[in-house]
Every structure is written in C-alpha cells, then in structure tokens.
Amino acid sequence: MKLTRRAFTVAALAAPFAGAARAQTIPLSEISAYMNALTTLTARFRQDNPDGSVTNGTFYLKRPGRMRFEYDPPEQAKVIAGGGALVIFDPRSDEPTRYPLNQTPLSVILSRNVNLSDEREITGTRESNGFTVVRAADPDNPEYGTIELVFSTNPVELRQWIVRDGAGEVTRVSLGELNTGTRVPDRLFNISAETRQWDP
Fold first, then answer.
1. Helix, strand or coil for residue 83?
2. Strand (E) or helix (H) holding 157
3. 173 near 13, Cβ under 8 Å?
4. CA 112: distance to chain centroid?
5. Which is more confident, 73 or 8?
6. Degrees (nearest 5) of the Cα angle 42, 46, 48?
7. What CA–CA distance (Å, rounded) separates 185 from 189?
8. DSSP-based three-state secondary structure for 150
9. In angstroms, rounded to a whole number, what is the distance separating the alpha carbons of residues 36 and 27?
10. pLDDT tens for residues 96-125?
C-alpha cells in the first residue's frame, strides 16, 4: 500500500472536529459494515494543502473501486480511481500519472468486501474528540508515510483522511454535506476517455 505524496496530496478527505462529543472507538467491524453498505456518495470538498493554500471541488464515490475528485476552476486537476487504477490529471505534469489501485490506501475502502480487521496495513485505532481515527501505513515501507481515516460516531460516516507524507507534510480535505444513494454516472470514472480528452 504505497503512500505516494503526489497521489495523496491531491486525494484526501476531512471534516471539522469542533463541538464533537467524546465517544467510544467504533469497532472496525462496524466501520467495515458501513463501508460495505455504501454504494454511491457525492459531496463538496475543501482541501487544505501543506503550503497553506486551499482548493475546492466535488467528490464522487461509487463502490466498489471507483472514486473521483474534480477541482473547481481555475484549478484543472482531477483524481480518478477506476478499472483497478488511480490516475492523477494535473496540469503541472506533461501527462497523467498512473498508479495500481491496490498499491494505494484507497484499496482499503474501495475493495468489494471491506474487512478492516484483516488488513495488515491498519496499524491502530483511537478516539479523538468524539471521532474514531483508523491509522494505516505500509509496514514494509514506513518512508511512504501514513493515512488516517476519520469516522463520525452517530451516524457512522467517513469524515476525514489525514495524509502525512514521508517528509511530514500533512494534507486535509473537508467534505460538505454527504449525499448517499444518488445516481452517479459511470462515465465519471472512465479513465481512458478522460485521458483522450486531457489537454493541460
């Protein structure tokens, strides 16, 4: 599960912690059941970058295996997971950057059958201000960094990814209102079509 800085500086999730009541840590079995029941999700997001800049956009999820971050103008970046790949469309690069999805942290939550209790990359859980934080890292390659998945308790929802790269830089992206069970077109995750149209 490689935590590449380029991929996950662009793709991370979050929500504010202010005002949350303290609670017990959610069992991994309950979080897994939540993820397995989730079919589609859309939300607005705000991304806080390591350099202090902020970007916004729209997030799409269609399980299993598909996810898209689409950034608002003037940004032209897109991050798409689909067809077993994660592709970064960044206008600062000459061409899209591709990673095998199973070598990224996204594979933990985009797999057909999520079972966090059996994932060797899950290195611990903790309670933080009423939220459950699930930490993941590649045990064979600690230099890749870490990712923390943050879940609210009532209701159980994925509310944050905190990505810390090998240099210690942190990226956060805050989700707005979550819309679940809505129709999300398959074309949003068509990497081949997006690549043909890409002209940074």
1. coil
2. strand 157-164
3. yes
4. 16
5. 73
6. 140
7. 8
8. strand
9. 14
10. 999 888 877 778 788 899 988 888 888 889
